[in-house]
Design a protein that fits this description.
The complex is a heterotetramer, with two copies of chain A (389 residues) and two copies of chain B (268 residues).
Chain A: E1 2-3, E2 6-7, H1 16-31, H2 33-45, E3 53-55, H3 57-63, E4 67-72, H4 82-95, E5 100-105, H5 109-121, E6 124-130, H6 131-136, H7 138-146, E7 150-154, H8 161-175, E8 179-181, H9 192-200, H10 202-214, E9 222-226, H11 231-237, E10 247-254, H12 265-268, E11 270-274, E12 277-281, H13 306-313, E13 317-323, H14 324-338, H15 344-358, E14 365-370, H16 378-388
Parallel strand pairs in A: 4-14, 5-6, 5-8, 6-7, 9-10, 9-14, 10-13
Antiparallel strand pairs in A: 1-2, 3-4, 11-12
Helix pairs in contact in A: 2-4, 3-14, 4-5, 4-9, 5-7, 9-11, 10-11, 14-15
Chain B: H1 3-10, E1 15-21, H2 27-39, E2 45-48, H3 59-70, H4 75-87, E3 94-97, H5 100-106, H6 108-118, E4 122-124, H7 134-142, E5 146-147, E6 149-151, H8 157-166, E7 171-174, H9 190-199, E8 205-208, H10 214-220, E9 226-229, H11 231-239, H12 241-246, H13 248-262
Parallel strand pairs in B: 1-2, 1-9, 2-3, 3-4, 4-5, 6-7, 7-8, 8-9
Classes of the chains: A alpha/beta (389), B alpha/beta (268).
GO molecular function, one term (chains B, D): tryptophan synthase activity
Active site (chains B, D): 46, 57
Pfam family, one (chains B, D): Trp_syntA
């Protein structure tokens, strides 16, 4: 259960048996052709996969340098890559005979995905969400309720994602015998990082075959994805890690990595344990976990998946940080040039790709994971515009 | 095994191990509360360290942690606090209850050296299960510290055998699933679990999580060698917060009579 | 240019030449293999087609009777079938050498689709929108602006879709020589109804082949779609009209067809001319066009595509009306049972399918066009819940 | 061709055809405004019918329509209003300007019969292009009504030839693209268009859309046989609205002097 020194299972003894049970069930499931076919079929028939690989002609031209391709995870059901993993884990829960799922959520995207698969597969669902986030994301709270989920207000700590995750783990410790904890990113105790990668790697494998088809068997010259917990990135990188393809993970620099307001875990964090996993995280010198900041709710997490910490340490992936402002600018450029309103998370990846493309040749190709759509961010964008003017 | 653990081990009492949070509501209060607990008959003391993300704790101890954080209490200061407790005459074993991340940041080796020097007797890391504790286990032995093991009703049998036979200081048996906190009912089959835990154990078997009344405590006498009370005591400290800061003598008196009301008559 | 008595070109002489030019260009384009391939490729690579045909297992079971299949137009880029037509017309505009497009919009969905394709293909875009709708749909207005479109406030008449359409036509009359008018539904003067059908019939043809693949060459026992202007319905019906498949169009009954607050054009309207076309419409006995009402902004139109008026008169399609309340109830059922939040428009079709399924056999199959997703409606749903409680 | 059209056709003036909205601001005002216009030298009168969706009209006439609707004016009443105008002595041809939907709801045949009986001379349907007007054209002939044709600078040549040679009453040449309304500039090449329109035309060729000043009007004399003024006059009526309702005599006086200021000297 390790990625170099990272990973592991730093959880109370009470749930250790459940992690073992989960690992066994997961390992069996992915060996089972029927399960895999079911998973692939649900991705296709329910979520609309494969998602296309769209060439961003006008954006690339106006930017100069390499061509940019967009892997369109924004076209998934519920609007982001999150559903891939939610479907996978829900099918596993059903296979394990669990009737209840719990999930944590920050802005509500994973909560909506979890509530969605719970409705689809007839499971009960509790979503833990910070009080502060419930206030800010009333629409998503309403959606989860429409889907039949119970949204549990978390009033501990800073009342945001980090605390919602703590609270979900607490609930899991209490209800572990009949409850499946559906974690939303490539974080948490082993085997969660492995499992989330497995269920998200469809992004990378589709991209590889689509790109090869367009470019006659070649591989992209660079692959870029944003990193919060890191599930879209690890899914995108999966098939390329062992190949000679430069990979770039893009963190949120918020107001700047030199300020106190960022979520650049790899750039500015240190080794530590969060939510059951040894990884890099943002903390004080004494080990108190600090509140990260990003305009994008999905990157606003003080930790990062342990495999990313490992890929960072081994330098297999280059991790860079992009500010709020750069992300907003990229979001607008993508909107105006391609008619695609991407999520603020994904805009970080787009922003870095634009920089990277300029340093590359015209006949080179960058693939960017467009992890989600930006409909959910329109309120934030409006507030920012009003504030900025 | 040090002297303090020897006394603890050889006691014939139904052992009382209270938990309090360092720095709640201030450092001096923690010292006086610790001494008061010893006076009331505590056989050992668990000293919690304030942490931003205490995922094994319920709301009462979370709030205590927030108060401790507000006092800038941290792991290093908590360990040093034990020196002061020893200076003030505390004789019972003291176990530092800390989340693993705090240990990591201070540095495991630095912590262990400091703990040994400060008169700490044991360490309990609620988010460091057996599978991840190899290094710390080894280092604790070298520094004469007991790494307290927790076992839960969900612990698999072969693991329970191993943990209970290897346990040092005491074996912490979790009485119910979930986080720390006050409970009104306990899990069916708990006696069988405690029996199994005792079978291979060379050290006292203590039951904890959720105990808050004399009646609850008495119900485990016989099936266990002692008990841990955390949230109930921490809640009383919360009630006494302002007195503990401004009128401490009176507060400690009230606290002691609360503790007496809690303990089974025969354990005093 | 007629469907029975319906259709025609009831427009000022000034734009007659443009309609002829358009018809010629359109007829040439659809004869041109390259244009068709380009259109199909853009649908696939940009919008993510084919959209899946999802079997609604839990919904069908809990409802009883026939099985319900959902044609997932909600998974298109920008969240509805609208983009099919917008892509088609934009490609035609580019082919005709036009650099400017104009469009009308009610709640903003077609406006967003038009602004999207304008950005994608490098066209300038003006969207006409009623002042009242601009107020109610601030988020969509912001989105259109992000996409680089100019949103023109329409203060004439009742300041809603009908008046925005009048105003777009007025602008077209003024700027007809270099401007392409991108109409959003199967309405307007000929050749628009024909053109919109052509660009939307991908819905029906995909459905037919997907259904045949699942059901071994059989056709569905019923096909259901909601009808406002009627573009998703005409696109869905297209391949089935000449076949022996019962077709159902579902109008908005609002607060009830017996009240003054509905948009049931076929059930309650009479022959007349609106926006360049002779069709059924809601009007006074003197010919003043009345304001329709529906909880769903996309069905809230006083006219209907002329081909629907014809299919209604010839009884080839059965048109039924569903109230706000029935649609809301169906939306919730679909959410809770399938994890799909559909548009309020589409919920009308779902509601009618649930009724229909109960009267059919267990081994029969209904296909419903899920024309769009419901993210845009969450505000309306919240207001309704609050009002209702 | 009836007598009124004959007078209109044989006039040697630069023909003035004003447009006003029926019922704006009230029926009686419409009557008096019509008579005043004739007194000022109008050669024919276009009478608009209020409509909810006037897609060929700009904001000025849209607002006039709203005022007419508020008076419950409709197509039937507008036609009947022409009877009253005739009773009050109006001699010039009157053209009903109506959107097609209003005609359809009243019934084309019913309308034509009524129009003929009421002394209407022509009909202009801005959203009924030549291609859709076959039936109405035929029926108008049977009822001695001229169906006024509009031609635009965008009208294709062969169609312009056909429309201008078949035109009855007068040929309406749209001076600029867009809806009705006041404009400060006109399209380049307009003279060529008017010349082409006149070439095959057996009836007077009038220019309209956007004319609002004496200077603009005079510029088309020579290239056309007359002119239509709508929005400018309707706007003046809007300004005079309250006087037209309460102090009509004064208002009509002001109106007439406005019309005089507008007309080229030689057309009076």
């Amino acid at each position: 259960g390790r990625y170099g020194v990272f990973g592991g299972k730093y959880v109370p003894e009470t749930i250790m048996f459940a992690l073992e049970e989960l690992e066994t069930a997961f390992d069996e499931a992915i060996q089972d052709r029927e399960f895999n076919e079911l998973f692939q079929r649900e991705l296709a028939i329910y979520s609309g996969r494969p998602t296309p690989l769209t060439k961003a002609d006008r954006l690339s031209e106006s930017n100069g340098g390499a061509s940019i391709y967009l892997k369109r995870e924004d076209l998934n059901h519920t609007g982001a890559h999150k559903i891939n993993n939610a479907i996978g884990q829900a099918l596993l829960a059903v296979r394990m005979g669990k009737k209840k799922i719990i999930a944590e959520t920050g802005a509500g995207q994973h909560g909506v995905a979890a509530a969605t698969v719970a409705a689809k597969y007839g499971l009960s669902c509790k979503v833990y969400m910070g009080k502060e986030d419930i206030r800010r994301q009333a629409l998503n709270v309403f959606r989860m309720k429409l889907l039949g989920a119970e949204v549990i207000e978390v009033t501990s700590g800073s009342q945001t994602l980090k605390d919602a995750t703590n609270e979900a783990i607490r609930e899991w410790v209490a209800a572990v015998e009949d409850t499946f904890y559906l974690i939303g990113s490539a974080v948490g105790p082993y085997p969660y990082p492995k499992m989330v990668k497995q269920f998200q790697q469809v992004i990378g494998y589709e991209t590889e075959s689509q790109f090869k088809e367009i470019q006659k068997g070649k591989l992209p010259d660079a692959v870029v994805a944003c990193v919060g917990g890191g599930s879209n990135a690890i899914g995108m990188f999966a098939p390329f890690i062992e190949k000679d393809v430069p990979l770039y993970g893009v963190e949120a620099a918020g107001m700047g990595v030199e300020t106190a307001h960022h979520a650049a875990t790899l750039s500015k964090g240190s080794n530590g344990v969060i939510h059951g996993s040894l990884t890099k995280l943002l903390q004080t010198s004494e080990g108190q976990i600090t509140e990260p900041y990003s305009i994008s709710a999905g990157l606003d997490y003080p930790g990062i998946g342990p495999e990313h910490a490992y890929l960072h340490e081994t330098k297999r992936v280059t991790y860079e940080a992009v500010t709020d402002e750069e992300a907003l600018h990229a979001l607008k450029l993508l909107c105006e040039n391609e008619g695609i309103l991407c999520a603020l998370e994904s805009a970080h990846a787009v922003a870095y790709s634009l920089k990277l493309a300029k340093e590359m040749q015209k006949d080179q190709h960058i693939v960017v994971c467009l992890s989600g759509r930006g409909d959910k961010d329109v309120h934030t964008l409006m507030e920012f515009e009003e504030g900025g003017e | 095994m040090n002297k303090r653990w020897e006394v603890f081990q050889h006691s014939s009492d139904y052992r009382f191990t209270p938990y309090i949070m360092a720095g709640d509501p201030c450092e001096e209060a923690t010292i006086e509360l610790s001494l008061a607990l010893e006076q009331c008959g505590a056989h050992a003391l668990e000293l919690g360290v304030p942490y931003s993300d205490p995922l094994a704790d319920g709301p009462v101890i979370q709030r205590a942690g927030m108060r401790g954080l507000a006092q800038n209490m941290n792991l290093e200061k908590t360990v040093k606090l034990v020196s002061k407790l020893r200076e003030r005459g505390l004789k019972i074993p003291v176990i530092i209850f800390t989340y693993y991340n705090l240990l990591l940041q201070l540095g495991e080796n630095r912590f262990l050296k400091l703990a040994e020097d400060s008169g700490v007797d044991g360490v309990l890391v609620p988010d460091l299960p057996y599978e991840e504790s190899g290094y710390l286990q080894k280092m604790c032995s070298e520094h004469n510290l007991a790494l307290i093991s927790l076992v839960s009703p969900t612990t698999r049998e072969e693991k329970l055998v191993r943990l209970s036979s290897e346990a040092e200081g005491f074996l912490y048996c979790i009485s119910s699933l979930g986080v720390t906190g006050i409970r009104s009912e306990f899990r069916a089959g708990l006696d069988d679990f405690l029996k199994a835990a005792k079978q291979n154990c060379r050290v006292p078997v203590l039951v904890g999580f959720g105990l808050s009344t004399r009646e609850q405590i008495q119900q485990f006498d016989g099936s266990s060698d002692g008990f841990i009370v955390g949230s109930a005591i921490v809640k009383k400290i919360e009630e006494l917060e302002s007195d503990l800061l401004t009128n401490r003598e009176e507060a400690i008196k009230t606290f002691k009579s609360y503790i007496e009301s809690l303990l089974p008559v025969y354990s005093r």
